[in-house]
Specification:
single chain; alpha/beta; Rossmann fold; 16% strand
């Protein structure tokens, strides 16, 4: 694959996207940041007008691009499955029309044999729809991404900092494999123009498999707090999402969609990415410390 020509980042102003754009520009790539309001963009990269939910805006944004990242999700919408499916299909077809050689998508971990939540099912559907135009899609499937500004991380941090104790549903015993946002970015940049990654699906995760309860308690320990946890089996997803909205700044709809996924184990089953993009991932405690330090720097 050619490394000449611009790379488009759809979702380049978001939690992962901002960091990805920084890394790509830092490596010398010509990066287009797709945004609904290019006049307000102040970061690196060249802002271009585009919206995945407005197909007519995609042709100009993708014109001449050799690759495109797709980092778009609609967790805060009640009809997010339909919206994300429509957007992914439109983007994949526009990318094919523009002659894009590779689409890179950040999806979600989860065993396909499991009864996946609507959120994770939607991520799987997006994977396939992005390729309907014929452009090879590279998929990285991640669980919780730890970093300042990430919604799953913010839920974790705010629960620890706002509550003296937690009465929680059974999902706190579900296992997950959190990964530092810096490591996600290293994987995203590492698969670009990488022949071994084109058209492939990879699981990505940090070095530790943890229950949600362990993650919460380790954050509490790092912040020198105590956080007793008392599981309550009958606390439903609907009640859990409303409870989250009271003790965090996450809206009810996003909280509900995330909580529904917390009954699914999200751990790495396939480790091939370590051969394609080899490096040592950051441990959970170190990722937490980096996220907390970054938050301090923004206050």
């Amino acid at each position: 694959m050619s490394s000449d020509g611009p790379v488009l980042v759809a979702g380049g102003t978001g939690f992962v996207g901002r960091r990805l754009v920084d890394a790509l520009v830092g490596s010398g790539r010509n990066v287009r940041v797709m945004t609904r309001r290019p006049e307000k963009h102040r970061g690196p990269g060249t802002p271009v007008r585009g919206d995945v939910f407005e197909p007519d805006t995609l042709d100009a944004a993708l014109e001449g691009c050799v690759a495109a990242y797709y980092l778009v999700h609609s967790l805060d919408a009640p009809d997010f499955e339909e919206r994300d499916a429509r957007a992914a299909r439109s983007f994949g077809q526009a990318a094919a029309k523009a002659g894009v050689g590779q689409i890179i998508y950040l999806g979600g971990l989860g065993d396909d044999s499991d009864d996946l939540s609507a959120h994770l099912r939607s991520r799987r559907e997006v994977e396939s729809l992005l390729g309907t135009g014929g452009v090879p899609v590279t998929v990285l499937r991640a669980g919780i991404v730890v970093g300042h500004g990430g919604i799953s991380w913010e839920i974790t941090r705010q629960l620890v900092e706002h509550l003296p104790a937690m009465v929680t549903p059974r999902w706190v015993r579900t296992r997950t494999q959190p990964i530092a946002v810096a490591d996600v970015v290293r994987y995203l940049t590492g698969v670009l123009d990488n022949e071994a990654a084109v058209g492939e699906v990879f699981d990505v995760g940090g070095p530790e498999v943890l229950q949600y309860a362990e993650m919460l308690q380790r954050v509490a320990a790092i912040e020198n707090r105590r956080l007793p946890i008392f599981p309550v089996p009958l606390l439903t997803p609907g009640l859990s999402s409303r409870w989250l909205s009271f003790v965090t700044d996450v809206d009810v709809q996003s909280g509900r969609n995330l909580i529904d996924s917390m009954s699914n184990e999200v751990i790495v089953q396939d480790t091939r990415i370590r051969e394609v993009v080899p490096f040592q991932t950051m441990g959970y405690d170190d990722a937490v410390r980096v996220a907390l330090e970054e938050r301090k720097g923004t206050r």
